[in-house]
Amino acid sequence: MEIYTNKHKITAAISALKSKNLSVGMVPTMGALHQGHLQLVIKALNENDIAVVSIFVNPTQFDNASDLDKYPRTLDKDVRLLETVSKTQIMVYAPTVDDIYEGNTVSKSFDFDGLEFEMEGKFRHGHFDGVGTIVKRFFDIVKPHKAYFGEKDFQQLQIIKKLVEKYLIPVQIVGCKIHREANGLAMSSRNMRLEPEYKDAAPFIYKTLQTAREKFGTKSATKVSEWVEHQFKTNNLLELEYFLVADVDTLKPVKRKSNKKKYRAFIAVYAGEIRLIDNIALN
Ligand code: PAF
User: Does the active-site annotation cover 179?
Assistant: First the structure.
């Protein structure tokens, strides 16, 4: 498997493949790969000739220095895992910070029509400017036909669709279903940092989302939110940061339900020091 660390080299290699009419799907990641990522790669390979997997812990999307420091970096293991999917059709782009930011590690400022101010945007300042900066950079370097993102980061997925629409970037964004552990916990690179007691406690998050979805059939969003808040008050390991029901297009909290709109419930929870997010489609 070819591992590229230099943007000019990977751009040249990909343009040579594209000149042979091969299609390219991209899976941007921050590494510490798990089965959820592999599902994205498998989908990319089902729909394209080549999958480019970027592995880069992007400093500009972290608002917390210790979170950035502690983010797992496991390149060799990641490559071995990717090789279980394909040794010939996957290219890895694992750049240095300098290769991407050229000595100026700052994000650009984006207007995502307000999507960036909801939920994660309220709790992680500058996060979506960092995500927009790196994903736009990747699309400039790799120029994929399609790019694959998990719905666990549903707000990020909507923001990337907006980025592509606003900047007229010729790439199709494909959203992929959340991949879960057998106990329901949404797969995340952060799960590997959970202490055992928190790992046991964390499936409560998805169980609560499932019951919230049932309740949303007959109750208002406010009542459902109150119920969820109460569930977490009685849980002494998990600390709720936010729960809300939002319109999938605007990501604004729902005030009054409408049959014409699609809603999702979104949640962020601290399991000790580890922040976990999840979401569920409600209708
Ligand atoms: O979802 C992620 O892993 C990251 O936010 C992404 C899209 C790779 C950008 O760094």
Answer: no
